[in-house]
Amino acid sequence: MSYIFEHTVLGFCWWDLIAALILAAVIALFVWKHHEMKKQERDLEDQVSGIYANDTVKIDGQS
């Protein structure tokens, strides 16, 4: 047990700091990509609604 405390700081290994930085980078990348995907999805929905905006079908009996 003393070996662990001699070679770690506050109970953490130095590799934990590197792993935490990599995890933070992966989370930031995921959030950024998710935001970009939602923006692209809204743009595509706008394009589709623009294409089909004038393609309405009249119901019988209504003008």
Question: Would you kindly provide a written description of the structure presented here, covering whatever features stand out?
Answer:
The protein is mainly alpha-helical and 63 residues long. The chain contains two helices and no strands. The termini are far apart.
Topology of helices and strands:
Layout: H1 2-6, H2 14-51
How large is the share of residues in beta strands?
Answer: under 5%
N-to-C terminal Cα separation, in Å?
85 Å
Radius of gyration based on Cα positions = 27 Å
- The strand count comes to 0
Average per-residue pLDDT, rounded, comes to 84
Number of helices: 2
- Biggest sheet statistics: none
Residue windows where pLDDT falls under 50 for at least 5 positions: none
Q: Judging from the principal axes of the Cα atoms, what is the shape?
A: rod-shaped
Can you give keywords for this protein?
single chain; 63 residues; mainly alpha; 2 helices; 68% helix; 0% strand
Task: Put the structure in a nutshell.
The chain is an all-alpha fold. It has helices at 2-6, 14-51.
